[in-house]
Amino acid sequence: MVNGLEFEKPVLELRNKIAELREFTKDSDVDLSEEIDKLEARLEKLEKDVYENMSPWDRVQVARHANRPTTLDYIDQLFTDFIELHGDRLFGDDMAIVGGIAKFKGLPVTVIGHQRGRDTKENIRRNFGMPHPEGYRKALRLMKQAEKFKRPIICFIDTKGAYPGKAAEERGQSEAIARNLFEMAGFTVPIICIVTGEGGSGGALALGVGDRLYMLENSTYSVITPEGAATILWKDASLAKQAAEAMRITAPDLKDMGIIDEIIPEVKGGAHRNVEKQAAFIDDVLVKTLKQLLAATPEQLISERYAKFKKMGEFAESKEFENIHT
């Protein structure tokens, strides 16, 4: 079994069995087509049962899959004439965030996103997709450039969170994130944000203030990782599975709460199964959304963006404790 997750073991084992029978049939005179057809029918039902009934923890595992497509993978599939731009003009170039200018079906756009590595060496170079403050300042520089030249901004979000190390804090990590939130709220060009993997804490939110916020079906978006929440709440990181269920960090939950605008479906088994097909799903959403947002005036964009975020976190007062001091 290659690149399999615990919950999908039965599916992968059955796929392997079917592949073995096909190979055996090809190399012998035995006709096993009837048995293969039965197994494929069984596989179809099993895939439906497994992939349509995934738990929040299952989705966390898929979002973290080592082969899950990265920002550069989607850029390669969705855009043409991409030119990567580097540096924040203040300190250096953070490889955990990539960005630049490109064309989407002939339309000039600015594309920015978190970037993880595929192996240990690249992950070290990319700091495991956890940006330093210069990464967020680079992103902001590119966004301001996009506004100057009236280019829509497209952000891909996939990070466990901003890097929490000493050097990052010394260089103003919190200020850099807060600055991005403040500036993004007032940009006069369309901003589309897509959570493609893990959307963790302020490190994700720093690229997440947009006119539209979408999530891939098996991605997550949360203030903290399930392990971190379990450690704080129960002093036991091994209870991450329970924390993931309690935190409501999956796309369906966040859609129900009005945090995101739409869920982008994934190919069966996760985006890593077919990058081209997954990119096609994102392509459809970008076409539809850009058509809507480009028709709006700058004033409408800012006003609707403000209203969108203002209504998040609405609360209702409880009378349960109103007489506690009387």
Automatic annotation (TrEMBL):
Tell me the compartments it is located in: Cytoplasm
Q: Does this entry carry the keyword Lipid biosynthesis?
A: yes
Which GO molecular function entries does the Swiss-Prot or TrEMBL record give? acetyl-CoA carboxylase activity; ATP binding; carboxyl- or carbamoyltransferase activity
Originating species: Lederbergia citrea
Classification via InterPro entries:
Acetyl_CoA_COase_a_su, ClpP/crotonase-like_dom_sf, COA_CT_C
Q: Which GO terms describe its cellular component?
A: acetyl-CoA carboxylase complex
Official protein name in the record = Acetyl-coenzyme A carboxylase carboxyl transferase subunit alpha
Catalysed transformations (reactions): N(6)-carboxybiotinyl-L-lysyl-[protein] + acetyl-CoA = N(6)-biotinyl-L-lysyl-[protein] + malonyl-CoA
> What EC designation does it have?
2.1.3.15
Q: How does it assemble?
A: Acetyl-CoA carboxylase is a heterohexamer composed of biotin carboxyl carrier protein (AccB), biotin carboxylase (AccC) and two subunits each of ACCase subunit alpha (AccA) and ACCase subunit beta (AccD).
Q: Does the keyword Lipid metabolism apply?
A: yes
Pathway(s) the chain acts in: Lipid metabolism; malonyl-CoA biosynthesis; malonyl-CoA from acetyl-CoA: step 1/1
Keywords tagged on the record: ATP-binding, Cytoplasm, Fatty acid biosynthesis, Fatty acid metabolism, Lipid biosynthesis, Lipid metabolism, Nucleotide-binding, Transferase
Question: Which protein family is named in the record?
Answer: Belongs to the AccA family.
Q: Which biological process terms from the Gene Ontology are attached to this UniProt entry? A: fatty acid biosynthetic process; malonyl-CoA biosynthetic process
Q: What does this protein do?
A: Component of the acetyl coenzyme A carboxylase (ACC) complex. First, biotin carboxylase catalyzes the carboxylation of biotin on its carrier protein (BCCP) and then the CO(2) group is transferred by the carboxyltransferase to acetyl-CoA to form malonyl-CoA.
Q: Using the record's annotation, list all stretches that form the CoA carboxyltransferase C-terminal domain.
A: 35-292
